[in-house]
Amino acid sequence: MFPSNRLKKRYLLILLFILLVTIVLLFFRYGGELLVTEDDLEDVEQTVLVLLMGSVGDRALGALELYENEKADQIWMVQSHLEGRELLEEKNITIPGDAELSKRILTDSGVPEEKITIIPGDAESTKDEALAVRKYVQNHTEIDHLILTTSKFHSYRAKLIFNKALNDKGITIYSSPTPYDPYQARGWYKDREDIQRVTTEYMKLAHYFLLEQFQMK
């Protein structure tokens, strides 16, 4: 006897349920790790490091460590957007942005000021930072590779965006996320902050693949 259509539907629903549960379990196990990209820097030395804005303290400490280990000789940052900056300037009020705060951490830690460059940009996103760096390297044709330092959960998307922005410049991008980032890639679902980071990052990845990459021509 052949199974009835009703039985077939039941089997199909069971299979779909098993598939869904498997996908969810795999996502919980590997979803956090897929966001992290860390390249081998063994053959890299005395190059330019691009410090991405966002979480100032831990990212700046990661850049400092790479500088002290002689992996980086120059540290670049893009000026980030500060809501209300013009209104504050009209009132002669100056508030340091992420780049200025990061520079202060680095110089107070012993990095010479001439080793740090803040690139104008008013950046609101990683895409804006990448495009500002692309414009800046047009006057620095000697550069053939860069180190990206950011948070662990941001490192995969950041490298995607910078590779897209610089793909016609012959520049190799190395990702070296800060080791001082508290993000736990394996047990991300156990921490409320990490849950928010992972959820937001996958939404931003979807936005990149569906829209943002086509805006970077």
Automatic annotation (TrEMBL):
UniProt key word Transmembrane: yes
Domain of life: Bacteria
Domain DUF218: from-to ranges: 54-202
Sequence intervals crossing the membrane: 12-31
InterPro entries reported in the protein's UniProt record: DUF218, Rossmann-like_a/b/a_fold
Protein name (record): DUF218 domain-containing protein
The entry's keywords: Membrane, Transmembrane, Transmembrane helix
